[in-house]
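cron nightly-structures :: item 1 of 1
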Amino acid sequence: MARATAPLKVLSWNVNGLRAAANKGFGDWLEGAGDIVGVQEVRAFPDQLPEDLRTRAGWRTDFAPAQRPGYSGVGMFARLEPDKVERALGVERFDVEGRLQLARFGRLFIANVYFPNGSGPNRDHSRVPYKLDFYRAVFELVERKRRGGYRVLVMGDFNTAHREIDLARPRQNQKTSGFLPEEREELDRWLAAGWVDTFRHLEPGPGHYSWWSQRGTARERNVGWRIDYVLATPNVRPFLRDAFIQRDVSGSDHAPVGVELDRGVLG
């Protein structure tokens, strides 16, 4: 009997600086990671990255840096050749921060997104309006792809824990950016429109997080937040085989998250 076709494995990871992650084993992890990997918080221009990541054998690489040095930025590594890659929302105040890649692989669009944090430089909520505007702009963009009949994944660091089950200490964080009612309502809107939180679709239980404070022993004690997601349009759900968080992968304060899909999702 012929071996079943291996699933398409798609992952997202906020690496908290790709150059730093490269020194902590990112390249080795990448080789066994899967087929398409989106990274956020690259914090480097492409020519500042190690050559073996910028032009890695067996991978198509693409980067969308911020204009500001050492800040934000997203990147994508793919074993498949994308048909098209978009890197802008068409709104300058968003595009200068290097927060979006949208790649098409056949009938599948994958948006790799680094959603803003709502906290301002003075640890206030001054960036929340910008964050909410960015959410809405991304939503409109991917909804257009959805209306065009494509299958769509939106993956990345959403910088928001959706429900109380998605962080270890919800009561203490009611007034913290990342768990404010207006931020959570943006995720409500996605799900109300039919988008699927792939991890929650398969795992309804508590204690699953993707980010931990670097202060103290939060990660060891699993006092974290689930703020990294892979959201899917309803027409992806029949192809969904697994959704996961790689909690044991170190190298960043975030863990990689991802999905396995039947390869028919591409056709």
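cron nightly-structures :: done
The chain is about 20% helix and 25% strand.
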